[in-house]
Amino acid sequence: MNINLISARTILAATTLCAAALSLSTWLTNVAEATTKGSLSIAMRVSPSQPQVNLGETISALVRFSDRSVGCVVTVKGISLNSMPLPLFQISSPALDTSKERVTEAIFQLQATDAGAAVLRAVVSAEHNCTGAIEAIDFDADSITVNVSAPEPVRPVGAVSYTH
């Protein structure tokens, strides 16, 4: 079989074009796979209304949740708040409307029930879909330290103390 120079160049050009097309096809497939997998990114903040409280007093804590994901759907199922390492507060959970398209915050009321220092830990329970399958996931964040002080005993006016 005789192949002249023009035919050889044509075959070489066609082979190069096919290889380039195959390479482009593979690259587009990888980009599509990366896009359908998505990137999960969540930011959270726990902000107590004040860092110091007296025993028996009530403060609030704002839990803010921001979904910065790309190519993922995140659905919040619940938000909880606890004091760590000791339970220094009676915590009233807010009514959370998870039927909203995006739940982004919750405000908790905390009544100080014991003296000490603690951080407030919020946990957001959610479902995410980044890969075509729904998966459960929890995110958490801590506040600054909150101090609960016992009030100084009040002495009646005119009270006298004796020491020996």
Descriptive overview:
The chain is an alpha+beta fold and 164 residues long. 20% of the residues lie in helices and 45% in strands. The chain has one helix spanning 5-37, and strands spanning 42-48, 52-54, 58-67, 73-84, 89-92, 105-112, 116-129, 134-149. The strands form 2 sheets. The chain has a 4-stranded antiparallel beta sheet with strand order 1-3-6-5, with no helix packed on it. Strands 2-8-7-4 form a 4-stranded mixed beta sheet, with no helix packed on it. The longest helix is centred in the N-terminal third of the chain and has 33 residues, at 5-37. 16% of the residues are buried.
Mean pLDDT: 77
Strand arrangement within the widest β-sheet reads 1-3-6-5
Query: Helix-strand pattern, N to C?
Result: HEEEEEEEE
Helix percent reads 10-25%
Number of strands: 8
* Apparent shape: elongated
Structural class: alpha+beta
Outline the biggest β-sheet. Answer: 4 strands, antiparallel
What does this entry show, briefly?
This protein has 164 residues and is an alpha+beta fold.
Provide tags for this entry.
single chain; four-stranded antiparallel beta sheet; 45% strand; 164 residues; four-stranded mixed beta sheet; 1 helix; alpha+beta
Task: Record the SSE blueprint.
Layout: H1 5-37, E1 42-48, E2 52-54, E3 58-67, E4 73-84, E5 89-92, E6 105-112, E7 116-129, E8 134-149
Parallel strand pairs: 2-8
Antiparallel strand pairs: 1-3, 3-6, 4-7, 5-6, 7-8
